[in-house]
């Protein structure tokens, strides 16, 4: 009898041991993620949200993500790094410009005039990626997983303009210090306004002009409260994906490799989609075809002159880099020199 009992006990232990790996395999990891604002439009809706909501399938890992756009959480998009450092979320779709006050080094990704087109922006993102990743890990315990663009940030006005100099004396919505300095240089008055509040600001006359991506403006209805569109790219509105080092380090090396590969694929898709959206949105905003991704409006399209293009490109050396370098070097000694040796060669700046 005792032998039989021992046998059954042993069999039960063996069965439990055999089942344990299977049980462990079924255990799923839960991540919480902050997304881009709903108001930013199609990249958030068609690329980002599906990626996070199908995270397990996209990564090949047993991970489920609770994804919430930042404007549904009751927190400010300027607080993302602080919230990540506190460990309240695992993943974030990082609003680069909005978090530059907490980490000025970030702004080196998107200085006014440095990325006038997609090809140049890719070079900048690639050249500066490791610098940003290292800084975020040191200061916020956050790892950079990828960089992607909303697209060229262009000018919308509710007053007639024919050239950049026409914004002299006008109030212009801006979203970071680099852009603010440039608007001051051309005689305008920069007014920091959150993206979600800009439609109302234009409508009420709080600002005369505003800067954002063509597709985001279309999605948010800015052409309802403006009359002119000038498709000159001040910046590329680079954004990123990041995760806490705690969550990253909890994964095995092979899981980390799969995760990074998934983010690489995701960001590549967004780069391509952003470029498609940009041209289509310019058409939609000015009532032209093809217009397949947005709503048609009747803005006046203001041609970009060679002089204005040169004015923006020259802003890097004249305004945006010097102003940023002073601020960045105070919080991160050697910041500007690091930028010169990484990004400088990528954009032909000596």
UniProtKB/TrEMBL annotation:
Q: Name one Pfam family in it.
A: DctP
Keyword annotations of the record: Signal
Q: Which domain of life is it from?
A: Bacteria
What InterPro entries does its record include? Answer: DctP_fam, TRAP_DctP_sf
What is one GO biological process annotated to this record? transmembrane transport
Signal peptide range equals: 1-25
**PANTHER family in UniProt:** BLL6794 PROTEIN (PTHR33376:SF15), PTHR33376
Q: Which NCBIfam families does the entry link to?
A: TRAP_S1
- Which protein are we looking at? TRAP transporter substrate-binding protein
Q: Which organism is it from?
A: Ramlibacter lithotrophicus
């Amino acid at each position: 009898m005792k032998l039989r009992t021992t046998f059954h006990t042993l069999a039960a232990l063996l069965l439990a041991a055999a089942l344990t790996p299977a049980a462990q395999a079924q255990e799923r990891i839960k991540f919480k993620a902050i997304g881009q604002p709903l108001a930013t439009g199609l990249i958030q809706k068609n690329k980002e949200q599906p990626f996070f909501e199908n995270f397990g399938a996209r990564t090949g890992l047993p991970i489920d993500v609770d994804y919430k756009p930042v404007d549904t959480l009751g927190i400010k998009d300027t607080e993302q790094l602080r919230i990540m450092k506190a460990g309240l979320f695992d993943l974030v779709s990082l609003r680069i410009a909005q978090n530059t006050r907490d980490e000025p080094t970030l702004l080196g990704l998107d200085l006014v005039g440095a990325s006038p087109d997609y090809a140049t922006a890719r070079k900048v993102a690639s050249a500066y990626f490791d610098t940003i990743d290292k800084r975020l890990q040191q200061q916020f315990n956050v790892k950079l997983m990828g960089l992607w663009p909303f697209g060229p940030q262009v000018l919308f006005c509710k007053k007639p303009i024919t050239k950049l100099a026409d914004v002299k004396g006008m109030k212009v919505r801006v979203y970071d210090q680099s852009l603010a300095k440039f608007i001051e240089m051309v005689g305008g008055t920069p007014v920091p306004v959150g993206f979600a509040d800009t439609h109302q600001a234009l409508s009420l006359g709080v600002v005369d002009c505003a800067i954002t991506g063509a597709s985001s403006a279309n999605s948010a209805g800015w052409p309802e409260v403006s009359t002119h569109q000038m498709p000159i790219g001040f910046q590329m509105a680079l954004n990123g994906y990041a995760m806490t080092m705690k969550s990253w380090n909890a994964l095995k090396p092979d899981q980390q490799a799969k995760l990074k590969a998934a983010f690489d694929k995701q960001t590549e898709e967004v780069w391509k989609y952003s470029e498609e959206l940009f041209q289509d949105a310019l058409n939609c905003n000015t009532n032209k075809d093809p217009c397949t991704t947005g709503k048609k409006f009747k803005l006046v399209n203001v041609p970009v002159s060679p002089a204005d293009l040169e004015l923006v490109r020259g802003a890097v050396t004249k305004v945006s880099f010097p102003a940023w370098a002073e601020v960045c070097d105070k919080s991160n000694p050697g910041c500007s020199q690091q930028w010169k040796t990484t990004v400088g060669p990528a954009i032909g700046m000596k």
